[in-house]
Amino acid sequence: MSTPALKIYNTLTRTKEEFRPIDPAHVRMYVCGPTVYDYAHIGNARPLIVFDVLFRLLRHLYGAEHVTYVRNITDVDDKINARAAERGISIRELTEETNEVFQQDVKALGCLEPTMQPRATEHIAQMIAIIERLIASGHAYAADGHVLFDVPSMQNYGRLSRRSLDEMLAGARVDVAPYKRGDMDFVLWKPSKENEPGWDSPWGRGRPGWHIECSAMSWAHLGETFDIHGGGIDLVFPHHENEIAQSCCAFGQDVMANYWMHNGFLQVEGEKMSKSLGNFITIHELLHTEKFGGRKWPGEVLRLAMLRTHYRQPIDWTVKALEEADINLQTWRRSLGNVSPRDITGIPDRRVVLALADDLNGHEAIQLIGSMTEDASSQVDVANNLAFLGLLPHRYTQRGFQEAMERITNKFQMQESQIEDWTAKWNKFASSPVNLGELSDIEDAITSDDLNTRIEVRLAARASKNWAESDRIRDELAAMGIALKDNKDGTTTWEVKR
Ligand code: AMP
Ligand code: ZN
Which of 31-45, 53-67, 461-475 has the lowest mean pLDDT? Predict the structure, then answer.
């Protein structure tokens, strides 16, 4: 069957265009990632989910090994410095801790890991190289330890946001500084004080401006020109406009990326959810606390709630939308009655692909799945579509099963016979219908099932004062990396030792 044509709305041309990759054997996408100083909010979750769906679609259309998705981690920023100082911890500690929570959050949202997640602090050399090129070609100048991009030196600056210089000046909060030649000129490099993070450069010890990092990381991992660049609509100006200016002028190219895609806002009472307005809910608190509607929410529920609205439209945040998405998900999962995880390949239905290929029409894709759940003969298709869209926990798919299996066998140092034993149990789970509605974690189930049996045998041995047998079981488990704890009330609990 022929591959359906993918159409995407390109902010650069303000039209829906047919997607033609530079090289179909290597489709390349860059999406601006988080600044790791604080937990991400559910507005930030929107681009994560939208571009994850696009990543999945591209993998389906071009083959997983032919798609590279780069999402950066901004780990140098003045907000990071301020927060680390406020908390009295090192910058590294703060960025590591925040990134760890971020990675757990995106996983819970059902997102695949991007091909690469480069960090800004590991690309300082590339940033310096780009800045040097810009100075050499007359597009940037050094002044007072700063390096600035000379905006009027670029003929078609403003092409993405379609604003004239006058409009940009009127609309932007422009810092007036003595070292700037023009009001719109923006910082590529700035000096660092002793207590601020800094790197040696031809312009003295300093640190990069905000925009240069994305030009550097996309260049390092995707080349001078690539296919798709994405982010939220607020990034069009100035961030993406400035990325284009830096990359095009440094590399002498007309384009940085051929297609620019932007998601709409998640709003609260008509306003963008944002840290600065203080109207935000973190992904973490939605998943792990009962502050919203009196319960915790699985990541897939937020994911479905978001996918139901076209990615370019605004969404108004309500608990009601989550409740509706939750009811849908529960109903759909219940309709999978006879499907066993082994049947779930995650290969989507062609109609769902067609809907998504039309500028990611998630709304239509979701509606299609909804109508399919009413047809008992399409259970496996529904499961595959849900898995494809990231709406079924990964562990219920074939690949998820294999990975969990590897985790289990790696987690415990097991003997051959134990591995065989557990593999058999595992296979039984994978091939019998699982009640997906309950969402019990099979990995945990296997682990505790097996351990509980051993613990019971050991308790019986202790009851009959067979200390040798009791110690043997304890040692055997210890060898697998499990510590037993005999409690005062006669029960025994266990934990995995690190
Ligand atoms: P930031 O941390 O503000 O740089 O945002 C990270 C990503 O989330 C960027 O792609 C933003 O455009 C996007 N974003 C921030 N706030 C929202 C929101 N309320 N709705 C949708 N996307 C957002
Ligand atoms: Zn960026």
Answer: 461-475
- Ligand closest to 33 (CA) is 1
Q: Does the annotation list 214 as a binding residue?
A: yes
Q: Answer yes or no: is 54 within a domain.
A: yes
Domain harbouring 62, CATH code: 3.40.50.620
Ligand nearest to the CA of 41: 1
In a domain? residue 343: no
The 10s digit of each residue's pLDDT in 88-143 is 999 999 999 999 999 999 999 999 999 999 999 999 999 999 999 999 999 999 99
State the total domains in the chain: 2
**CB-count exposure of residue 198 (10 Å: 0-12, 13-18, 19+):** middle
Choose one of 230, 263, 296: the last residue of a domain. Answer: 263
CB 46 less than 6 A from any atom of ligand 1: yes
Domain that holds residue 451: 404-496
- What is this structure's pTM? 0.88
240 CB within 6 A, ligand 1: no
Instruction: Give tens-digit pLDDT for 422-459.
Output: 777 777 777 777 555 444 455 666 667 677 788 888 99
Structural domain contains residue 194: yes
463-491, pLDDT tens digit by residue? 999 999 999 989 888 877 778 888 888 88
Q: What gap in Å lies between CA 130 and CA 139, rounded to an integer? A: 11
Tell me the mean pLDDT in the region 76-83. 95
Instruction: Measure the CA–CA gap between 57 and 349, rounded to whole angstroms.
Output: 12
Q: Final residue of a domain: which of 263, 291, 323?
A: 263
